[in-house]
Amino acid sequence: MSEQAGTDETAHEPTDSSTPVSAPRQQRWTGRAPWLAFGIAATVLVVDQLTKMWAEATLTRGERTPLVGDALGIQLIYNPGAAFSFGENTTWIFTIAAAIGVGVTAWFAWRARSRAWATALGLVLGGAFTHLLDRLFREPSFGQGHVVDFIAYFDWFIGNVADIALFFGVVTFLTLELIGIRLRPEPADSSGPSEPSGPSAGGGADGGGVREGGAA
Questions:
Q1: What is the mean pLDDT of residues 64-72?
Q2: Where are the domains of the chain?
């Protein structure tokens, strides 16, 4: 009897696993993410256009005013190309590229259910859209308008608020991809398989999401 009891106790002893099991990453799911993205985009657009209006009304074209020595200044120019004045003779190509970029980014922003992704996409969408408006409606002609630049960085290049938004949006985008944050985390009460949806859709390291507000 004693041997059998000892055997039963041994059989019911919990298994001690020496290998730690990491819990799946929890992401917060929110149906309000698209509106956050579009709100950020609208803010970028308004601030960018207002500062361009200020620059055109205040600054003399080509004349540089230092703010932080040679590191930072203000200097009004009209850029027909892209960053660093690249592609000055092919403005229409950048107009088409900006239009495509706005459409694609807006589609991903509408599908976003992550605040982090909404922030990244909102910054990119706002920067791309305000540049598109410059290309479409500024001189010299429709579709070939020149972008207003006025923030000078050393002797490297001259940009604007939209460029700053684009830079931080892309950096945030790459960071989210690197750490495996998904565009559309699954709600906590979803029992179906994950739906592939844009960037990081296949991030298997991510677990389910925590539902917050609204429906998808």
A1: 92
A2: 29-184
